[in-house]
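From the methods appendix. Each design record in this collection lists the tokenized structure first, followed by the designed amino acid sequence. Records were kept in a plain field format so they could be parsed without special tools. The example shown here is representative of the layout used throughout.

RECORD:
FOLD TOKENS (197 positions):
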């Protein structure tokens, strides 16, 4: 696995949330720009998604948003229409998720709701099934993902997930910790795909 140059970030479309989550989105966007890492995300201009993309773009970063047509239409009139970076409009959510995964070489999960959890579990499942072997990080800002981590450990304890699947995701408490972990990733030539399901 080579060091990620494009990271896909999943995060909440809600903005009326604890300021620590908002700040984490801004810090992540800015840090990605500073490190020359392309941001691939769901294309929305609302909530943490908008803060993240704006921060990355404002700091000179490369932003690629991928949005399904119906969500793009829903956002028109709701938020200012200026496009942040490059916006790709696709037909369905399945296409959105596939393209976000294809264009990235790692995944970061900021605080979010149902959509963010759906994206996390899908990309985790794809890795379990050997469809990719790209790193997945929960950005556990202010302990937001502690209950999810407890649930994941429960699945392992109860043997609905195999012990080997524990390596499929990792956790970082801060944006700095996330990049320290990414920097520490071993350089491996070519894909290392194993079915763990
Ligand atoms: P949620 O956590 O339910 O707010 O959903 C956020 C996730 O779902 C994001 O990572 C997006 O990829 C996707 N998503 C949800 N709402 C939108 C939106 N308005 N525009 C684009 N993507 C969205």
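DESIGN:
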């Amino acid at each position: 696995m080579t060091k990620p140059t494009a990271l896909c970030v999943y995060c909440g479309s809600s903005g009326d949330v604890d300021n620590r989550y908002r700040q984490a989105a801004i810090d992540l966007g800015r840090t990605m720009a500073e490190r020359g890492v392309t941001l691939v995300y769901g294309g929305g201009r609302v909530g943490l998604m908008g803060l993240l993309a704006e921060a990355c773009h404002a700091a000179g970063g490369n932003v690629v948003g991928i949005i399904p047509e119906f969500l793009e239409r829903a956002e028109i009139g709701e938020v200012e229409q200026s496009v942040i970076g490059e916006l790709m409009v696709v037909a369905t959510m399945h296409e959105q998720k596939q393209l976000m995964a294809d264009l990235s070489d790692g995944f970061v999960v900021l605080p979010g709701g149902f959509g963010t959890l759906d994206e996390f579990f899908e990309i985790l499942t794809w890795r379990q099934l050997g469809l990719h072997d790209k790193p997945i990080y929960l950005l556990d800002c202010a302990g937001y993902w502690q209950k999810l981590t407890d649930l994941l450990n429960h699945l392992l304890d109860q043997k609905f997930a195999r012990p080997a699947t524990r390596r499929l995701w990792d956790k970082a408490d801060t944006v700095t910790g996330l990049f320290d972990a990414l920097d520490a990733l071993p350089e491996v030539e070519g894909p290392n795909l194993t079915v763990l399901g």
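APPENDIX NOTE: The beta strands are 6-10, 38-41, 63-68, 86-90, 107-109, 136-139, 170-172.
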